[in-house]
Amino acid sequence: MDFLKTLNINAHNKGVSTGLQWLKTKGEKLSSFSPVDGTLIGTVAAADRAAYDAVVEKAQSAFAEWRTWPAPKRGEIVRQIGMELRQYKTALGTLVSYEMGKSLQEGLGEVQEMIDICDFAVGLSRQLHGLTMHSERPGHRMYEQYHPLGIVGIISAFNFPVAVWSWNSMLAWVCGDVTIWKPSEKTPLCGVACQNIIQSVFKRNNVPEGVCGLISGGRNVGEWMSADTRVPLVSATGSTRMGKAVAATVGERLGRSLLELGGNNAIIISAEADINIAITAAVFGAVGTAGQRCTTTRRLIIHEKIYNKFKEHLINAYSQLKIGNPLNEKNHVGPLIDTDAVKNYVDAIEKCKAEGGNFIVEGGVLKGKNYQSGCYVKPCVAEAKNSFEIVQHETFAPILYIMKYKTMDEAIALQNGVPQGLSSSIITNNLREAEQFLSAAGSDCGIANVNIGTSGAEIGGAFGGEKETGGGRESGSDAWKVYMRRQTNTINYTDKLPLAQGIKFDL
């Protein structure tokens, strides 16, 4: 496959890197099988403890120099990375699609996100601003500034195998931090490919070795990172269960954690909704990436006046979905990541039926020569209650639950009535409904949209959610501040020493 050669991916890859060189390791081999056709793409050597420590030590050494580079100079490195990603967009996007299973368009879109965050970070490198405050003491000046933290540990998930790493890394680098990255063990080759791309830029610019570390491996690597006092910030993306474990371990040592965890996202379909917009938003939100986005639409809360009509439109739209090889751009839905995900999908359908759910679009596992990996399933739709246990949990699969509402207060209560709080949406042409949804008494999610779906966040806004989604914020706005430490400075430029609060201390 040409895209593998372009990215310097082979049958046997090293999975531990200091950013400028690949390290030997005695760790286990991670095998990457494509969910598209079941083919073994390649293996990656995972980190052992010695290799992990070597990367961290090199990162510590690099930080001592990297933090002294002017921020715009660090931004120039990120600018060049963005240019490099433009050259490799097709190859890397194809690898994302083939190793993870999302459609080629989504794979290319993920690499575009990387390019966009590079552009954002370049501008940010000249805007790492603090504030100036008036001192209560005469002849004093008071201000605050931000300094880099040190090593940022990044634990990313399989569903966005490159974009989320770039959200963290590009901001961390312009802030003066160094990074170590544990990619998902389900998509390790995407991590190797990114490291190959980054290395060429770093070598050309004499970037200190250790600014960008890669540590492939399983759960044990994440546990080492979470417990490591040398890593002041751990940014973890994944399940709520994983996030709770990371938060507990990092919190015990009083470190910082940035958590992007599960979602259970809903769209409220108003009686005054534009039906065409609502159908497109709902279907793409529910079946995009085969339901394996944290922002996937899992619930539709539909006004009772249009419920039956909307249900007919939904059934018709689902009947037109094409399921198959995601590299074929005519297909809408690719495979789930692996057969474990398929089992979770099947179990969720059975649990929904057992609780009284009525499937208006039936699910099932697809078989045959075009589905030989065993990872292809049918997107399905069930009438369900918000109170069902299975509805309260996130299933990483294309299962959509629909329910009725009468009043906007009821709809918002249903929307908020789950443990997760990532993304939400309302489709309405009624300004009052839209404003109520966006008010303090409206959606309790970190993202609340009007007349668009729950998926497809832009990098300019801070991304993240509340409640069991973890409370973290990445990407745009002022999310950069999490990668830095705040310092308040007061300067006395007189020959006296007045004390604050009028305290007298005479010697």
Provide an overview of this structure:
The chain has 507 residues and is α/β, with parallel strands linked by helices. It is 37% helix and 21% strand. The protein contains 15 helices and 23 strands. It has helices at residues 2-6, 49-66, 71-87, 89-100, 104-124, 163-174, 188-204, 219-227, 240-252, 275-287, 307-319, 339-354, 389-392, 408-416, 431-438; strands spanning 12-14, 16-17, 29-33, 40-45, 132-133, 140-148, 151-155, 178-182, 212-215, 233-237, 256-260, 265-269, 297-303, 358-361, 380-383, 399-405, 420-421, 423-427, 447-450, 462-463, 466-467, 474-475, 484-492. The chain has a seven-stranded mixed β-sheet, sandwiched between helices. Helix 8 packs parallel to helix 9. It is globular and about 80 Å long. The N and C termini lie far apart (80 Å). Belongs to the aldehyde dehydrogenase family. Its EC number is 1.2.1.3. The active site is at residue 260.
Short description:
This protein is an alpha/beta fold and 507 residues long.
Strand order of the largest sheet: 14-15-16-13-12-18-19
Cα-to-Cα separation, first versus last residue: 80 Å
Largest sheet: 7 strands, mixed
Q: What fraction of the residues are assigned to beta strands by DSSP? A: 15-25%
Rounded radius of gyration (Å): 24 Å
Structure annotation, total helices: 15
- Secondary structure class reads alpha/beta
The rough form would be described as globular
Helical residues, percent: 25-40%
Low-confidence stretches: none
In round numbers, the mean pLDDT is: 97
Number of strands: 23
